[in-house]
Design goal:
By secondary structure, the protein is an alpha/beta fold. Helix content is 38%, strand content 14%. The protein has 10 helices and 8 strands.
Amino acid sequence: MSPANSYQPLDSVTDPSPLRVIDTHAHLCHPQKFSYIWAKRDPHDLIAVDAASFFEDTSPAGVEKMVFVEAAVEPAQHFQELAFAEEQSLLDPRVAGFIAAAPAHPNEMAAKLERLASHPLVRGIRFLSRYAPRPEFLLEKPIRELMEKLSSLGLICEIGVWAQELPIVAQLARNCPETIFILNHAGKPNIAGGELEPWAQDLRRLAQHPNVLCKLSGLATLAGLRGFSREILAPFVCHVVEVFGPERVMYGSDWPMASTSVHYLQRITAVRQSLSDLSREELDAVFKANAERIYRI
């Protein structure tokens, strides 16, 4: 996986004071075992990646552990993907947690949540609005009741939404104050277009709910062809940290997405440089300590 010509060469990337890193958002895929919903649209992106390939690619960046986030397999294969995650964790204990796909139908969720909670590797579930029947799906009573149950099971809820859906997440967090929510990909701002608003204001309102945290994940994909650098990222990254505070922000890569255009070390260095105003302790929180606390690592 080599960086595209539009990015700086890997050997020119330097980190003056390396960090210890837990990547809270990486995907492992096995296309021979699983059918992926997104691969119907982007079959060229379907590649086999495992823990060994992840740590080989990320070792120059000081990544010590990772959280395996479900990769949108077909609903009938959710528990097979969990078995794959457990297998990878046995092969390499640095796979320190698994975020499972949310059950597909409300009437299946209660039993499946309890089953998921019985697996020590599982830390939570993830909802993706792109596969929901409608954006307001998360606010409907059966879903809200199940969301409220998560905290009693020791599970968190990760949320993947588009920027215009952030008010829905704010309402969800208000409805379920005992549940911990993790916003994926910083709420998907239009980094490629350089558009801070209305994302910035909606994110500020969301951050008012203390049970919500935010991941600096997937930023390379969101930057798109505009490029991936501190200058491009800093306004978005700094706003996330401003409104959530470093104690509620975590680093994640969305590996292996965009690995063919931006090497992992370039990604994490650009994020790190965007956080140049943080203290060493605050940087440690974003890149490691918060993940240890939230994911019980």
